[in-house]
């Protein structure tokens, strides 16, 4: 064999040895990192789909307090979020107070698309309204203030800023 060929074989074997030993040493951490990235991508995809689906219902959904009628697209705020999230396999209870106890608490400064936002729109300090965070300070919700039900509002508007109570991450 020629010296250049021997050098190439030695170099290839050394590279293969490094790759194999690195993968054997880091397999658990690589697997954990891969699972974490996949979960993050999955929840981001779900959040995008949830927000897009909620937006697609604008002009089709009607608001009626205390109603959960998916066949006629008549909902209150929490039956609307329940309906939208169910399309992505996320089970929510009916009622804004019940939904405010699901998932994990998230601070207002750490909101992500798809988080549930809770407000007090009638009795001060009492949760009685829910919406879906869209990102960039906007949220979508089913409300009495819109002709067809669905409205996109600014979380930082004076109206909602003072009524905001908490948020939950359910994805």
From TrEMBL:
Top-rank taxon: Bacteria
Pfam families assigned to the protein according to its UniProt record, in alphabetical order: NLPC_P60
Sequence ranges assigned to domain NlpC/P60 in this UniProt record: 44-171
Signal peptide: 1-32
Entries under InterPro entries matching the protein: NLP_P60_dom, Papain-like_cys_pep_sf, Peptidase_C40
Keywords per UniProt: Hydrolase, Protease, Signal, Thiol protease
Phosphoprotein recorded as keyword: no
Similarity-based family: Belongs to the peptidase C40 family.
The protein, known as: C40 family peptidase
Organism of provenance: Paenibacillus mendelii
